[in-house]
Design goal:
heterodimer, A: about 260 residues, alpha/beta, Rossmann fold, 2 domains, 10 helices, 10 strands, about 40% helix, B: alpha/beta, Transcription Regulator spoIIAA, 5-stranded mixed sheet, two-stranded parallel sheet, about 70% helix, about 5% strand, elongated
């Protein structure tokens, strides 16, 4: 019932610091179920810090983060674990465990949080790898595959438990345009087939325009969000020169 | 007439309908999510085996079906089995999302990728392989020693390039930062020697000779060994981890492309620092060990500390001191080379850094023991 009434993620008056250095304040936005929500902004504006806060790794100094109406930082340890178990996170470099094969990397969350048999886990890991285009690579180690493949393997691990929310940290960074496009398509397919809510932290304009249906724009100088909405609509309608400059790669001054 | 067979596990989850000739209609329903109990693929395969004339499997769903990857995984295995048995797998009756996932998963299965499961290696091949790897490792070690020799040659000519500030920092890490640990261990070792010796010596009323045992043992070999082992565990491991992570982060490649020899920049300062610091730490460890022996002698056997000191000076000759210092010099070189070698040859992964660190400590300590044996043997031959 909660998931019908509440947004998948709701951020209220959030204030974050990093090593006692204020990073963001007055953040207010919500992510609806099935959204592909983009957190964008220039380098060093605090995008990754927000991702840390959204994935439960960084406690805000003020404000609330709610998942399906449940306040994460008000929940006890078990409650927080239950919420985090419904997350899948793809880190920038894949963050695969190097001593495990790709199959073992994907299997580990299933071993920890499901009661599947070893054979079922193996099949499930193979399925997830196949879904990201790595069918047949289960016995390879992360060091034996390319950076783009590592990212996809990281995504296979992120979707191992069919999460409700999948977070992506700079998914296209370091990828060639074709691989980046493939990853964008994959994100769309995962959203459509798994009904997942997707949060993408990125500053890749092509990806932002291709997949995002909602977004928040962060400004490093004022340390807060300065725009929110569909990125294509922001490009067409925003009156903020910083947003326009960013979304046009500085081609337009942003003064209308 | 419809011929419906229900599975053993749950009639709502999987039903077999053979009403049409050579066609099996599989009806799926109920909870097929990860963790929910549902029919095993083996059960369906067993059904297929009993119907050799089957040409098609048609999938249909009951409205009660709730699914996630659990069902997709089941269907993917079923489709592989159908392909294997030349049975048409008609999935058009599935919800569109499941179909999409099945197609996505099937499209990427590349049978050209070789299986990575290691075949069992014949015994002699395995032994031969290990011997060849050991020989290659030895060659790499000699290459590294050669590079170090050349780097010291460049250092002597004033052409080696490294940062003095960093050298001073490494000196501090190898020396001053290790003092507390060396103090603690050396005092305790001195006390242990004193206890062990005293048990025998008191039987003859010769407990004053505790000073001789502790003094000679510490100064001649134990001070150097204890300092060396501590440095292998502390500094050697840190060298390996540091250089290993630099290798992983391509920092060493960046030095090479800059035209800087990594051995000059990274290895030489580390070897120099340990070669300078380990003898000094050994002298310090000797003093601490003697102090430990003195505390036990004074506290438990009533020996006057001045008398103890006097006997120590009588027992410990300059030769003992030189042997200890030569030991420590050798240990410094061994620990530094072990740490740097394993760090520089580290694989570019977290596991590689772990292996490099372990190898550095193990080979450092092994090297110390072997070097002690060799030096002791040589001293014995020359009567030192």
């Amino acid at each position: 019932m909660n998931s019908v009434l509440h947004p998948a993620i709701e951020v209220r008056d959030l204030e974050l610091d990093y090593a006692d250095y204020p990073v963001m304040r007055n953040l207010n936005f919500s992510v609806q179920k099935g959204d592909i929500f983009i957190v964008m902004g220039g380098s060093g504006c605090g995008k990754s810090t927000i991702l840390k806060a959204l994935t439960g790794l960084l406690e805000p100094i003020k404000g609330d983060i709610l998942y399906n109406g449940i306040n994460f930082w008000d929940a006890d340890d078990t409650g927080q674990c239950d919420i985090m178990r419904r997350f899948g996170v793809l880190y920038q470099g894949g963050a695969l465990w190097s001593s495990l094969t790709l199959g073992e990397n994907v299997a580990l969350p299933l071993q920890l949080y499901s009661k599947l048999s070893a054979a079922e886990i193996r099949e499930m890991a193979e399925l997830k790898l196949s879904l990201v285009g790595l069918g047949g690579y289960a016995d390879f180690y992360p060091s034996e595959i390319s950076g783009g493949m590592r990212k996809r393997a990281g995504l296979a691990r992120a979707i191992a438990l069919d999460p409700d929310i999948i977070f992506f940290d700079e998914p296209s960074a370091g990828l060639d345009p074709i691989s980046a496009k493939m990853l964008d398509d994959l994100i769309l397919q995962l959203r459509d087939t798994f009904d997942a809510t997707i949060v993408v932290v990125t500053h890749e304009l092509a990806s932002i325009m291709a997949i995002g249906n909602n977004s928040v724009f962060l400004d490093g100088e004022s340390k807060t969000m300065i725009a929110a909405g569909n990125p294509r609509e922001l490009l067409a309608n925003s009156s903020d020169p910083r947003v326009i400059q960013f979304l046009t790669r500085g081609m337009k001054s942003g003064v209308k | 007439m419809n011929k419906m067979i229900r599975t053993k596990l749950s009639s709502e989850k999987l039903a077999f309908d053979y009403s049409a000739p050579k066609i099996l209609r599989l009806k799926l329903g109920g909870n097929w999510q990860i963790g929910a109990e549902h029919p095993a693929i083996g059960e369906v395969i067993a059904h297929l085996a009993t119907h050799a004339d089957l040409e098609q499997i048609t999938l249909e769903v009951f409205p009660t079906l709730s699914w996630d990857s659990g069902l997709v995984s089941f269907l993917l295995q079923l489709s592989k089995e159908c392909k294997h048995r030349n049975i048409r797998f008609a999935h058009e009756g599935l919800p569109q999302k499941i179909e999409k996932l099945l197609m996505l998963a099937s499209s990427s299965i590349n049978e050209a990728i070789p299986s990575r499961k290691a075949a069992s290696e014949p015994f002699f091949e395995m032994v031969g392989g290990k011997a060849m790897r050991a020989a290659a490792g030895l060659r790499a070690l000699f290459d590294f020693l050669g590079e170090i020799t050349l780097a010291f040659g460049r250092l002597a000519e004033g052409k080696a390039c490294f940062r003095r500030d960093e050298f001073v920092y490494i000196l501090q890490r190898c020396g001053v930062d290790a003092l507390l640990l060396v103090s603690l261990i050396s005092v305790l070792v001195g006390m242990i020697f004193a206890f062990v010796g005293a048990i025998q010596l008191t039987m003859f009323g010769a407990q004053i000779y505790i000073a001789h045992i502790v003094g000679i043992a510490m100064v001649r070999v134990m001070g150097a060994i204890m300092a060396g082992i501590l440095m292998a565990g502390r500094t050697g491991a840190s060298f390996a981890a540091e250089l290993g992570i630099m290798q992983t982060n391509e920092e060493i490649d960046a030095l090479k492309t800059l035209g800087v020899a990594p051995v000059d920049f990274l290895v030489i300062p580390r070897i120099l620092a340990l070669v300078i610091m380990l003898p000094l730490l050994t002298l310090y460890a000797n003093m601490m060990g003697i102090l430990g022996g003195m505390v036990v002698s004074a506290g438990m056997f009533g020996i006057n500390p001045l008398e103890y000191w006097h006997h120590t000076l009588m027992a410990v000759t300059l030769n003992n001191l030189w042997v200890g210092l030569v030991n420590s010099l050798a240990f410094g070189i061994i620990v530094a080379i072990a740490g740097c070698y394993h760090g520089m040859k580290c694989e570019r992964s977290a596991a590689g850094v772990g292996t490099a660190t372990t190898s550095a400590v193990v080979s450092g300590i092994t090297g110390i023991v072997i070097a002690t044996a060799i030096i002791t043997f040589i001293c014995q031959i020359f009567g030192v």
